[in-house]
Specification:
heterodimer, A: 230 residues, mainly alpha, Methane Monooxygenase Hydroxylase, Chain G, domain 1, 7 helices, B: alpha/beta, six-stranded mixed sheet, four-stranded antiparallel sheet, 36% helix
Chain lengths: 230, 253
């Protein structure tokens, strides 16, 4: 018994949808990484490029929306195909939101002074790296339909929360030393919070991948770090 | 949990040398709609024809194993097949009204089963059956016109009214909408929703979307075997069996 649809164009449409989502995912990854680099290096020249790439991500989102509408109307997908279609809709929404948060982070680079101390940025950098790893892993779990890997990402969001808390503390410490730091420190706090929220969207994607693979939602509420608990 | 109305255990059907059903174990719940799906020739129709012993009319057909309704063996040689078919009505793929008036189409069954002794009793049965099949308003002023003068969808509802007229417990529907347009189909589906409050319904359909819409339980047949049976929602969102998934997603050649 073959695994291909009897209707070839249906097969192609589903594959096209998956391809679009993977491309959108990799674009979101580069944008997140570029935005993070821009903050850490206080690289004001890259801001425009990052904002531009967000437009690309948004275009993907509407393209995927159209593909999904067409699939629903033409094919009335069932079982795995239905889950694939609905999951694409959800994942593309989360990716788009991650894109927005990266754009927001890029914009925060503008008011930052060029000589930010390393101890201030160290924790933020670690948080950024963790969030990027999480995004990379969750996209891998989507491509390989790997339930265990998606669940691992879901569980690891706890670390994102904890690191957010630590990064926030170092900014607040710095801020309390000198009120002059108030203006740009606020931007760093927002940038940290944005990363934490990107982490939440990654967790959503992990949940969606679990549903896609097994057809049932993860049970219980996800592990939460200190920031959320307090 | 609903009561089991019909229970088959290791049911096998042979047409001469050819085996059409293999050890089918399937429970049909009372006052529920069970949909049977599967490619042509997979045994779905053969299965429902076991429920009202329609296979009796085929000389070379042999049935082994068990099939029970309310705990009574349907295959019992001494069972009165006419009264079985009074309890188990059937509606076919193509509407097949008798070449008689609308009124006579409905009153024929009750008359031969000795129900409705008087004209007024029969009038009442005809009216009730047509109301239950959602056809009364459309035909009440022309009951003496031939049943065949109705549209396809109306004819099918007439056949449902005819099945209902003898007050059965189970209604078997073998692709009841395959010859109907979308509106007529929607009316039959609406009707099935209503009828399941009173009757146990089994529907054979080639439309996945229809199975999802009308049934609570779905069974998937392939090459005479019942591959998977379960809650309709589960079967169409996340079936356990790969063959079921391949069939409902159109990956089946």
């Amino acid at each position: 018994m073959s695994n291909e649809h009897t209707v070839k164009s249906y097969e192609e449409e589903l594959q096209f949808l998956k391809d679009s989502l993977i491309k959108m995912g990799s674009l979101t990854e580069s944008q997140l990484s570029d935005a993070m680099d821009a903050v850490i290096k206080v690289d004001k020249d890259s801001i425009d490029k990052i904002i531009k790439s967000d437009e690309e991500i948004n275009k993907f989102r509407s393209k995927i929306d159209t593909q999904i509408m067409n699939l629903l109307v033409k094919r009335a997908p069932m079982a795995i195909d239905l889950r694939e279609t609905i999951s694409s809709l959800k994942i593309s929404q989360d990716l788009e939101r991650i894109g927005d948060l990266s754009k927001s982070n890029a914009k925060k680079v503008k008011p930052l002074p060029l000589d930010l101390p390393d101890e201030l940025l160290g924790n933020l950098k670690r948080l950024g790296e963790l969030v990027m790893k999480q995004l990379n892993d969750v996209l891998d779990s989507y491509v390989n339909k790997n339930f265990d890997k998606a669940k691992e990402v879901w569980e690891k969001d706890e670390q994102v929360d904890d690191l957010t808390y630590i990064a926030m503390e170092s900014v607040i410490d710095f801020l309390s030393k000198d009120k002059k730091n108030l203006d740009f420190s606020t931007h760093l706090i927002f940038a940290t919070k944005n990363l934490e929220r990107a982490g939440d969207h990654i967790t959503n994607i992990a949940e969606t991948v679990c549903y896609l693979v097994k057809g049932e939602y993860l049970k219980g509420s996800r592990p939460k770090g200190k920031v959320i608990q307090e | 949990m609903s009561n089991v109305k019909i229970k088959s255990k290791n049911l096998n059907v042979y047409y001469g040398d050819k085996q059409a059903l293999f050890d089918v174990n399937l429970d049909l719940n009372e006052k529920e709609v069970t949909a049977l799906i599967g490619p042509s020739g997979c045994g779905k129709s053969t299965f429902i024809r076991c429920i009202n012993r329609m296979n009796d009319v085929i000389d070379i057909c042999k049935v082994t194993g068990n099939i029970e309704m309310d705990g009574i063996n349907i295959n019992d040689k001494d069972l009165d097949v006419v009264s079985l078919r009074e309890r188990v009505g059937m509606v076919f793929q193509k509407p097949n009204p008798f070449p008689k008036s609308i009124y006579d189409n409905i009153s024929y069954g009750p008359k031969i089963h000795g129900k409705g002794e008087t004209k007024s009793e029969l009038d009442q049965i005809v009216e009730n059956s047509l109301k239950k099949s959602a056809l009364w308003e459309e035909v009440k002023d022309r009951l003496d016109e031939p049943g065949t003068s109705l549209s396809g969808g109306q004819q099918q509802r007439l056949c449902i009214a005819r099945a209902i007229s003898v007050n059965p417990e189970v209604i078997l529907m073998d692709e009841p909408c395959s010859a109907l347009d979308p509106i007529a189909t929607a009316k039959i589906e609406e009707l099935i929703d209503e009828l399941k409050k009173t009757y146990t319904i089994v529907i054979v359909t080639h439309s996945m979307a229809q199975a999802v819409r009308v049934s609570q339980k779905t069974g998937f047949f392939h090459l005479g075997k019942l591959i998977e049976v379960g809650k309709t929602e589960k079967i169409f969102k996340n079936p356990d069996n790969k063959m079921t998934q391949d069939y409902i997603t159109g990956r089946f050649g």
